[in-house]
Amino acid sequence: MTLAWIALILSGLLEAVWATALDASKGFRKLWPTVIFLVSYLASMAGLAYGMTEIPVGTAYAVWVGIGAVLTAAWAMATRKDRATVLRVALLVGLIACVVGLKAVS
């Protein structure tokens, strides 16, 4: 695994952080969640940009979004902000399979 892939995966993790912090900021009215949002957002974008130096844009963006979406949704279900249903979990597993598939064919 190259440094570009590692940066892309880490930036996908940070996407889940900034999305969760954005919700916790309550429209940027809470200081620390807003600060966490800004820092993680900038770091996530930087990692995505670095990943795109070696990974095709379509693949990089799909993997980045997939990682962030799965982790954000899983966190929301774990903290009971969203309902966890069999169908939702199955769809998230399908999304993970797609992200792994994109990595495998790249």
UniProtKB/TrEMBL annotation:
Compartments reported by the entry: Cell membrane
Primary location: membrane
Keyword terms, alphabetized: Cell membrane, Membrane, Transmembrane, Transmembrane helix, Transport
Tagged with keyword Cell membrane: yes
Alphabetized InterPro entries for the sequence: EmrE-like, Small_drug/metabolite_transptr, Small_multidrug_res
Membrane topology: Multi-pass membrane protein
One Gene Ontology CC term in the entry: plasma membrane
Name by which UniProt lists this protein: Quaternary ammonium compound-resistance protein SugE
